């Protein structure tokens, strides 16, 4: 897919949601300039542009599509990023994991241009709009939308759960995180969170499937694909 295709996709989604159109500069890629570093495993039917930068211990599930200039990095040699099935990761998305253990991302998640993801747990059927950010102190469940430019982070009055000294249940988690309920929408200048009704899920899923098929046809025509040995 060319950057023009990506821009058209963003404008199409914005026209449906009523959001302000986002200007995206076309990007040029050099097919051999970026390569995989570390251990990369890939499922079937994946489409990964050669100009995607994937580093560390990463698994990519069946059918996932990764655009040029996407950056996926697992820093810790004892960590791993596990990306589920049929996700779409657009240009300049940054998925970053620096802890031990797994960063788990579910199925059919859409990461739009410039989104930054640091959370170690993300469910399925979520949308992370352009330039949104998910911090490492939250958990995202299912059918959640983080709006353009918004930040998913704990509420100001949230206090992480603690365990009293000598409690038989043991020590608190190393990295306590705030969990957003499924069907959360984070929107506006203040990154306000609310719960949506879930109406229109089937229509959204059908549109997502059409978007995937379009990318499967267009990306191989426009870009060299990464060869996984």
UniProtKB/TrEMBL annotation:
Keyword terms, alphabetized: Cytoplasm, Cytoskeleton
GO cellular component term of the entry, any: dynactin complex
A single BP term in Gene Ontology = mitotic spindle organization
What broad class describes the main subcellular location of this protein?
A: cytoplasm
What would be an example GO MF term here? dynein complex binding
Region ranges (Disordered): 1-31
Subcellular location(s) per record = Cytoplasm, Cytoskeleton
Q: Which InterPro entries match?
A: DCTN6, Trimer_LpxA-like_sf
The family line of this record is:
Belongs to the dynactin subunits 5/6 family. Dynactin subunit 6 subfamily.
Q: What does this protein do?
A: Part of the dynactin complex that activates the molecular motor dynein for ultra-processive transport along microtubules.
Spell out the protein name for this chain. Dynactin subunit 6
Q: Write down the species.
A: Meira miltonrushii
